[in-house]
Each structure stands twice: as C-alpha cells, then as structure tokens.
Amino acid sequence: MTTSDINKTEVAEFLLTGFSDSWKVQIVHAALFLLIYLAALIGNLLIMMLTTLDVQLQTPMYFFLRNLSFLDFCYISVTVPKSIVSSLTHNATISFLGCALQVFFFIDLASTEIAILTVMSYDRYVAITQPLHYEVTINQGACVKMMAMSWLSGVICGLMHVTATFSLPFCGSNRINQFFCDIPQLLSLLDSKVIIIEIGVMVFITSLVIICFVAITLSYMYIFSTIMRIPSKEGRSKTFSTCIPHLVVVTLFMVSGSVAYVKPLSNSPSVLDLLLSVFYTVVPPTLNPIIYCLRNKDIKAALRKQCGMLDGEFY
Question: How confident is the model over 298-306, as a mean pLDDT?
Fold first, then answer.
C-alpha cells in the first residue's frame, strides 16, 4: 500500500466548525436557520402546488418557476438541516462519504440553479422583446429540452468536483471552517501540490458561471431597453419592480459564489467565508418565493382561488 493510499484512509470523518463553538451562539444559529428553512420550504412548496394545480399557470414561465422552486426546495435541504442538527446536538462531525455526497448534491443543484436562472432570463427576454415569436420560440419541446440540459449540466459539474476533490489524499487536519462541506475549505486540507486538477475544475466552472451571468445581464439590458419604450409610466414601473429584485438575487447568488470559489485558499476561519456562503446557500432559496409569489398577481390570484376552493369544501 502506498503512502497516498494510507493518507486517503486516514480521514474517516470531517469536523464542521460552523459559526461558533459557543453553545448559546449555536442555539441562536439553529433557531434562525430553522425559521429561514421553514420559510423557504413553505414558499417553494406553495409555488410548486399552485403552478401545478392552477390551469392559468400552465405556461412556460411558470413551468420554469416550478422547476426553480423544486430545485430551491432541494438546494437548501442539502446544507441547512444538517447544520441545524449539528448545532442542537453539539455534534459537528460528518462522515467522509456524507461529505462527498453533500458536495455532489450542493454543486449539482447550485450549477442547475445557475442554468435555470439563465434560461428564465432568456424566457423573459423573448417574451418582452419578441412577443410575436414567443409561442414559437419557447414551445413545450424547447422548455423540456432546456430543463433537461440544465439538470444534466448540474450533474456533470457535481461529478467533476467530487471526482477531482475526493480522489486526492486528505491528510493532517479534518476541520472544515464552514457550516457544510464546501470545496474551497476542503481544498485547504489538501497538499497544495496535488490540487491543481480541482483548481482547474473550479476555474472552468467559474468561467461558465461568468458566461451565464453575462448572458443574464445582457438579457435584462435588452429587457430594460424595451421597457423604457413602454408609453405607460405605470406599465414601466410594474415591469421594473418585477425584474429588478430577480436581478438582485441572481447577482448576489452568482457573485458571492464566484468570489468564494476563486479567492485565495486560507487555513484560518474567516467571517467573510461564512458570510459569502450564506449569500449563495440560504438567501436565494428563501427570497425567490417572495419575489415570484408575493409580487406576482397571477400567483396571488391562484392562491386566492385555491383558498376559496378549500373554504367551499370545508363548509
């Protein structure tokens, strides 16, 4: 057995240091994360239910939104529940396999979310700038293909990261300075001489994220340009109020994630690392339902309709 093989088996589990070693801080963290998690689950489940049951919401835009909500439901469930349990039980360990699975699903879903957000921006671009061609361009077949490609791209990115990282020999400390298994913190546990492949994967995927971000930004530039030509001030205001919050969340998600993955590696805990991770793990799944549900008249009408049907059944 080689030295490399021995080192690989030395780390049987990892220790997630989280936000603090203080019991009081951990309780506050668990309570706050539990409230956020429940809000995210309820919001995303509500959107999935309404866009499935209401006939008026059987359009491409709500098809994409339903996929996004399902993804966000899964995405926040990969990291936050484990962090809550760890804080409440004061047991922050995670097995080697558990860590590898968490990394795979996290990268898979994060990459898929970026792809879906890009597809949704393209959908809005066609709907607003080329309304006469919308039904032909964004037809049912095109929707299914775009969603299939989005989910497939996520799986490929997840496999690339897991293969490049967990095939390397972990040795020395097993403390991950994060509340979940994240690639940048895992790389800090590896010998800098052997992580060149994973760094290459990170640079490649981050480049794809930047391309997606540029595509989204260009789509919204064309959208805003078209909006400015709307004669009605009320119409312009309504469209802006819908698009800008979405663009803000997309920017927070992509920029914070990209910064976290390309900044220099560090062996010491950093408040910036934890803050950035919250922006790309917790914020998007929680805010997306608010942006797409509370600010959307069709969704609110569907909710009132379903509530009315329930009231009718009750009485």
Answer: 76
Q: How many CA atoms lie within 13 A of 11 on its CB side?
A: 26
For residue 105, give every residue at least 6 positions away whose Cβ sits within 8 Å of its Cβ, in sequence order, or none: 74, 78, 158
Say how many C-beta atoms besides its own lie within 10 A of residue 46's C-beta: 17
Quote the CA–CA distance of 281 and 253 in Å, as a whole number: 8
What distance in Å separates the CA atoms of residue 175 and residue 141, rounded to the nearest whole number?
A: 47
Please count the other Cβ atoms lying within 10 Å of the Cβ belonging to residue 115: 23
Q: Stretch 109-131: mean pLDDT, rounded?
A: 91
Domain of 143, CATH number, reads 1.20.1070.10
- pTM over 0.85, yes/no: yes
**What's 19's DSSP letter?**
S
- Segment 188-207, tens digit of pLDDT: 887 766 678 877 888 888 88
What range defines the domain where residue 36 resides? 3-314
